[in-house]
Every structure is written in structure tokens, then in C-alpha cells.
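Q: Here's a chain of 447 amino acids. Please give me its 3D structure as C-alpha cells.
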Amino acid sequence: MNVSVENLAPCRKLLRIEIDAQEVEAAFDAMINEFRKEANLPGFRPGRAPRDLVARRYQKEIADEVRQKLIADSYHKAVEEQKLDVLGAPDIEEIQFGRGQPLQFAATVETAPEFQLPEYKGLPAKREIRSVTDEDIQKALDVLREQRVTFQTVSRPAAVGDVAVVNYTGTCAGKPIAELAPEAASLGEAKGFWISLHAKSFLPGFAEQLLGAQAGDRRTVTVEFPADFATRPLAGQKGEFAVEIIEVKARVLPELNDAFAQALGAENLEGLRAGVRKDLENELKYKLDRQVRAQLIRALLDRVQFELPESAVARETRNVVYDIVRENAQRGVRREVIEREKEAIYAAATRSAQERLKVAFLVQRIAEKEDIKVSNEEIGRRVATLAALYQIPADRFLKDLQQRNGLIEIYDQLAHEKVMDFLQQHAQIEEVPPGQLPQGLAVATPA
């Protein structure tokens, strides 16, 4: 077998492979014998038909099998001999094939980038000096109380923090909103609607105009729909609502006592505080570790430059664009806004994709050099954890992963985590007071 390699681009190569005629003929002979074993031709018992007759009867099928086998076997052998780290499937171009002549074909492949691994031990990073305070614990307990708030009907004027239960109908430019914007019919009319009386509730300026109202009162509420309002027929318009107050409800928070703690599964209030402290400390450690690891990744990226496979960048960019568009859509960003910003989105996605891929290649090389591996037991534990998180039976979750090659993704995630653990253990970490890290890296105080 003769192999030549041509560099088309930093991560793209052309392999020209030739198999001599003698090897091609031997492959044909072997394949004819294989077909003869199964051939069922009229007048002959299975496996007893003459070779020449089998060769003529299955000429096309035999040639196809020989071509596929020779190309696959010689391609893999060539990749191994040339020590190429190929990504994805090759693009095969057949040049010459037939009995009595050499097989010639070309394979265009993308390969992993070639680069000198930089020094990755002793990378610098800064870690903010933070701890969980009594104030943090109290804030967390207040959040737990808010999650169990109840509402008590009161016979006084509505105040900030109350809830008003109302019936309302809305008009815009003298026409019912339900008629102008059928897709937002509930915005034009509702009965028994709960409105929290704070500035950001419902529509801008609506809740404030209900302050001081009591059950049985009627009020006319006017609003100005923002220019970027999601319901386009109403954007930039003025709306008028006829509102009837049905009830005023006061928010009632549970007392912070042993009974409250026991309702949450703790032995008493002191036990609840201890549990909250532990959770906050774990959360803070996780955030501080992420802060350090982001710096380690940046330091690693700054120490090496290399080209990336074009198709891998394109594929990862598509994934990032999809994530960005989906997140914006979930936040209520209109489609036309996303379309208007598509060039900026694509540019940002490309930069993000390139960094992701560089990190992936660097992490893989470090794992190889340090012999960092993931065991089947570790994969099994992660699968069990994820299955419990998604509330899916573990065996069904594992089967789903196997069907879509998801176990490879699990392996990569665990390997990445282990490499980052290794880098953090060997990093030069300086502890600094809060506020001395670049914006975006600082860790917020636990809530």
C-alpha cells in the first residue's frame, strides 16, 4: 500500500492511497469464496455452485463489497501508519477500481490541531476572600418564608405589598384590546385577577393606581404600553382599563420558629439555621471554584495559539447560535430583534465556539499527558445522579444515553472536571479581598 499526505490547511489533509493489483485480486478471490458459501443457485445445493458461476451471478454485489472493504481497511491502516488524529468521517473520492488493476482513492480528512502543550502547572489565579455571614443566613431564611407566604383578606385600603383581586376590561384608542390584539385576549379582559401591588407588577404604572382602593371600589387605570411591548398592535399606545376591586389581600409570612423549621424537615430552628449555613457555604465554594477555574482557563488559552478544524468550528458555532436564540426567545426578545442582531449573534457565537474547542483540545491533551481517565464506576454514578435529577428510571435513562451515544458526552464531562481539579490543585492561587477581580469574575454575596 502506498500512501501520500498533502496538507490542504492547518487541520485538513488529503490522503492519496493506492492498493496494488495483486492485493485487489486477492480480495476479489476471498470475497467470491464468501459469496459461494451462501449462494443458492438453481441446480446446486447451497455452497456447491461453481466459483465462476457465482462470480458472474453476483458480479456487482461482489465488486461493491470488495470496494467497501478495501477502502475502509486501507484508510484505517493509512491513518494509523501516518499517526493522524482524524476528526469525523473522511470524504472519499474513488479514482480507480477494478479487477486486474490497482485501487486508487483519495480521502480528505480533518485532523486535531497540532500544538505544543504549554506549561499548565502553576497557572496564576486570584480567589476572593469571602465567607457566609449571619446576614446571608437571614436572607436565605426570609426567602424560605416568602415561598410559604399566605394571603389573608382584609377590609382596609390596599397598600404596597398587598394583592388586589380585580375584574378588568381594557381598551386602546377606543376599541377593546381583545379586538385589537386577539392573541392577547386575556390582557384585554379578566375576572378574579390577582395583582401584586408593587411597581413591576403586571403593566407599567397599573398597580400603583390601585393603592388606597378597597373592596367594592371601581377605578379607571391608564397605562402607556412600551414601544417594545411584545404585543405589537399595542406597542407605544395608551390603554385604559375599567377596574373593579373584588378583594384586598395582605401577605402573611410564617413566623420563624421551631414549627416553621419542622415543616421544612429540620429538628428545630437552630438545626434549620445550621442546614442553611452548610448549603450557603457549599454554594459559595462552588462559585469561588468557578471563579478560579475561569481564570485558569483564560491563562491556559493565553499561553498557546493554534488553528482549529473549520467544520468543528462551524458545527460548534451552530450549537452556540441555537443556544443564544433559544435563551433570547425564552426571555421574550422578539423574533425581528433577533433577526436584526443576527450578525452580532453569529460573531459572538463564533468567538465562543472557538474558545470552547480550544479548551476541549487542551483539556484532552492534558488528560493524555497526566493519564487522567474516567472509570466505568464514575460514569455509572453520574448516570444514576442524572437519572434521579430528571426523575427517570436509571435503566431507561442509561438506555436512552446508549442509543444517542450520550455516554461519550458523560465521559467528556467527567474528564473535563477531573482535569480542572488537577489544574486547580497545581495552580498558584492568591487570596484577595472582595472587589479586586475584573468585572464578570467577582462572586456575588450568597443570597
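Q: Can you summarize the key feature?
A: Confidence is low (pLDDT under 50) at residues 443-447.
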